[in-house]
Write a structure and sequence with these properties.
Nucleotidyltransferase, domain 5, 37% helix, alpha/beta, 15% strand
Length: 198
C-alpha cells in the first residue's frame, strides 16, 4: 500500500527517472505534486504496472495532480556527463518546470544533487512506497516509451517498439548486425568492440 505523503507540513514533489539503464535514447524524469485526496487503485512503481494500465494512470495523474512536469536529457549529453549526472539533471529540469514550487523533494534512489535551496529525501525503492514518486515513475516511463516509439519509426531494425532501448538479447543482436545508430549511447558497453556503422 502506497503512502500518500512523507510528511504533512510542506508541499512535496515526488521525482523519478526512466531509461537510466538503456543502451539508446534519452533519460526522462518527472516531478509530481499530488493533492491530499489523490488515489488510484492501480498506482504503483511503473515496473509493476502493465503498459495499458500505465497509459490509464498517466491520463489520471495529469488530470488530478496539482502540478506535474516531464523533462529529458539526450544520449549525447549522457555521454558527456555520465548517466548518473544526466539523471539528476533531468530531475532538476522537471522540478524547474513545475508550475507550483515544492518545499520538499522525494527522490527515488539513494543519491541526488541538491536542487536550489529545496530540501530533499532520497528513498530507496521510493516508487514502491510513496504515491508521488510512483506517479512520477509512471509519467517518466510513459513519456519515454512514447519517445522511443518515434525513434523506432526511424530505426525499426532495433525493435525499440518492444525493448524501448534496453539491453535485450534482440537489441544486442541488432546492434551486432547493423552497428550503432546515432541514438545509441557511446559511453555504454553496447558491444565489446563498440562497432559502429555511422
Amino acid at each position: 500500500m502506497l503512502q500518500s505523503f512523507f510528511q504533512n507540513q510542506f508541499i512535496e514533489a515526488g521525482c523519478d527517472e526512466a531509461g537510466r539503464g538503456c543502451l539508446a535514447g534519452p533519460v526522462f524524469a518527472a516531478a509530481v505534486i499530488l493533492p491530499r485526496d489523490f488515489f488510484h487503485p492501480l498506482l504503483n512503481d511503473s515496473k509493476q504496472v502493465a503498459e495499458k494500465q500505465r497509459e490509464e494512470l498517466r491520463i489520471f495523474i495529469e488530470q488530478y495532480a496539482i502540478a506535474f512536469s516531464v523533462a529529458l536529457v539526450d544520449h549525447e549529453e549522457i555521454d558527456r556527463i555520465n548517466i548518473l549526472q544526466a539523471s539528476f539533471k533531468a530531475m532538476h529540469l522537471a522540478i524547474e518546470k513545475l508550475r507550483k514550487l515544492p518545499q520538499l523533494l522525494l527522490i527515488d534512489g539513494n543519491r541526488f544533487n541538491p536542487y536550489s535551496n529545496i530540501p530533499h529525501e532520497c528513498i530507496i525503492q521510493g516508487d514502491e512506497q510513496f504515491a508521488s514518486i510512483a506517479a512520477a515513475s509512471i509519467l517518466a516511463k510513459t513519456y519515454r516509451d512514447a519517445y522511443m516509439l518515434k525513434l523506432h519509426n526511424e530505426f525499426p531494425q532495433y525493435a525499440w517498439n518492444h525493448n524501448k532501448g534496453y539491453a535485450t538479447l534482440q537489441h544486442r543482436k541488432a546492434i551486432q548486425h547493423h552497428g550503432l545508430s546515432p541514438y545509441h549511447r557511446r559511453s555504454f558497453q553496447c558491444l565489446p568492440d563498440q562497432l559502429s556503422l555511422f
